Amino acid sequence: MGLEILGITVLWLFLFGYVIIASIDFGAGFFNAYSILTGRSHILTNIISRYLSPVWEVTNVFLVFFFVGIVGFFPKTAYYYGTILLVPISISVVLLSIRGSYYAFEAYVSKGHKGYAFAYGGAGLLIPASLSVVFTISEGGFVEIVNGGPQLDYWKLYTSPLSWSIVLLSIVAVLYISAVFLTWYAWKAGDQPASQLMRKYALIWAAPLIITAVGIIYEMRSHNVERFEMMGNLWMVFALSAILFIFTIWCIWQKRHYGLAVILLILQFALAFFAYGFSHYPYLLYPYLTIHEGFTNTEMALALVIAFIAGLCLLIPSLYLLFRLFVFNKGYVRGERKEHV
Amino acid sequence: MINEEAVFWSRVLTETTLSFHIIYATIGVGIPLMIMIAQWVGIKNNDEHYILLARRWARGFVITVAIGVVTGTAIGLQLSLLWPNFMQFAGQVIALPLFMETFAFFFEAIFLGIYLYTWDRFEGQRKHLLLLIPVAIGASMSAVFITIVNAFMNAPQGFEVLNGELVNIQPLIAMFNPAMPTKVAHVLASAYMTAAFVLASIAGIRLLQGSNHIYHKKALYLLMKLGFIFSVATALIGDFSGKYLAEYQPEKLAAAEWHFETEEGAELLLFGVLEGEDVKYEIRIPYALSILAHSNPKAEVLGLNEFPQNEIPPLYIHYLFDSMVMIGMFLLFISLVYIVAMSRRWSIIRKRWFRWVIGACGPLSIIAIEVGWWLTEVGRQPWILRGYMRTEQGATTSGSVDLMLLLFCILYIVLGIGSVVVLRRMFRKNPIEREIAERHADRKVK
């Protein structure tokens, strides 16, 4: 296995980590804002803030890790994506900033402040939409080389049904992932009303999820036949992902095995995400940039891999400690302690 | 293909983002150390006041760190968005410390979350203090790694260019470049110094506002001592930076000092106004520039006449240099006066005007940080990667940078005002007198 495959696999893994953790985070922020709007904040706010508070910063690092890593392993991505993504990613950065800071304002200082809660709840839902544009662009057809430099065709991007389908899927996925996770988390906290409400949301968002996902496959066929066929070669993995989805829904429906449902959900998304990534091989930006020609030199790649392994030795025990103290700590989850600074 | 407008707006946007980010980043690097010291003093002396000090600083820190994180994400992405050619080129050589920085930051973020949410969970304060060590290390290491990248832009090495291709790349040689030791040390020491003076300002202003509580006086004395130590360190390292510049970036030193002709026994110019090549109203210190550059009053210092006209940085950096040095010296002096006055029981430190001066120390130290960064960034011009890539070659060609500048300006105004409003509300809602009263009654340090 070449270093470039190793590099992109690791980065893809971290991006997947971000997709899951950030979805929980963004969805929770939205449900929190929605519950304030509908006067049900007493049911949800506590459980959501207990989960979010100690981990929100960690979520952001997954994203930073991904984009610093991809420029490190594939410096040409800085040139191609850097040039074309100025506007879309700047918008994402503004949303991420609003989301991160207003979350801190609300959580640490003005608990229940409606303006802050709406600001970060809303921003959280728009972030996946704006970030998902990158996936759409990577499919090709929106970028042209003009005067030797890549240029993005905004009109084509904004009128493409594919890009809107991907935007829709990203939003629906955020709400679904978050709802399933919080159903389990609230259940573990012994908070029946919150768990019930989140279960309802999970079931509501299940159907739109599968409809938008199928819709994208359909759009792909008319957008880029070659990419569609590349995905078609992996149809079994996508099918397996769909089966896991059905099992997740079954668990939630039966009001049993919420923990198992979360695991199935993660597996379902992992399969789909990696199958999608695999079908993208070897392109980083179709058809201009492949992982082979975009790869950095061997010395740097080796140095990055060594740094990565050393970093993991530091991170995994730390993450374990974080999860043990908060997500898997019964006393903390149930809110028996007040130990905030 | 170079788009002049895009180059200009990219520079403005990068400067805006960095100038805003650096306030929160500097505080973010320095404050964990201050919290750690206060908590440690509290444990050692069994003094609840210092523990509370640590606790309240940690609360405020949450807000500044949040802004630091989001603006740091912004600048991290803007590097690729505004300088895609530079990142493509330099990324091949200097990606390693950038990558390591994310790990340091990861480490810090995880333990900060744990530290904030485990007050009172453990038996005794000592265990809890241990959790802060990775936060402080992570924060400082982030600064180290990111400063290494900046040092590389000033003194690139660890690669060769053959027919426009980069060959023989050595990531570690690139990291340990000549600019790195002084730059990293200067950034760290000045961050600790700034954090100490910013916190001291708050205590000074509280005393001005009429609170006469011993809590503020303890805080002020501790912070003034720390501020003094770190301002001495910053000044010493600043002197080494002068020697580094004389050796590796003589044009930057010459421009900052308005040193036009190469000469031996060079004078140091302070202040002054430039009229053509004539300097007016300046203060001249004989031999001082030779001493700063080479530790030898007779040594030869290269002047601007040695360099091609189009490779000389703008001369206004002289004022940036002077402002930075003057503020640094002033802060060093004030903290020294405070410490001496405390031990000699001089009445000066209880005077209102002196408390005003202390109140000004925090904003002044932030200004020094800003002008220091402008000095080093503008002083590297016209290069983005000294000797290899000019700034305009590194920039994006996009036509929308000006619009993005507007967008980010609005964002920074919102974040800046928001953070100040929220911090004030946080401490108003829970004044120290009340918190002391609540805690003293029921618990002592274990």
Brief sketch in words of this structure:
The complex is a heterodimer of chains A (341) and B (446). Chain A has 341 residues and is mainly α.
Radius of gyration of chain B: 23 Å
What profile does the largest beta sheet of chain A have?
A: 2 strands, antiparallel
State the helicity of chain A in percent bands: over 70%
Structural class of chain B: mainly alpha
**Spatial arrangement of strands, main beta sheet of chain A:** 1-2
User: Most extensive interface, residues per chain?
Assistant: A-B, 70 and 79 residues
Query: How helix-rich are the residues of chain B, as a percent range?
Result: over 70%
Features:
heterodimer; A: 341 residues; mainly alpha; 13 helices; 4% strand; globular; B: two-stranded antiparallel ribbon; two-stranded antiparallel ribbon; 72% helix; disordered C terminus
Report on this model:
The complex is a heterodimer of chains A (341) and B (446). Helices cover 81% and strands 4% of the residues of chain A. Chain A has 341 residues and is mostly helical. Chain A has a two-stranded antiparallel ribbon with strand order 1-2. Chain A has a two-stranded antiparallel ribbon with strand order 3-4. The radius of gyration of chain A is 20 Å and the shape is globular. The model of chain A has no long low-confidence stretch (mean pLDDT 85). Chain B has one domain (4-167, 175-250, 316-442). In chain B, the strands form 4 sheets. In chain B, strands 1-2 form a two-stranded antiparallel ribbon. Chain B has a two-stranded antiparallel ribbon with strand order 3-6. In chain B, α7 crosses α8. Chains A and B meet through α2, α3, α4 and α12 of A and α2, α3 and α13 of B.
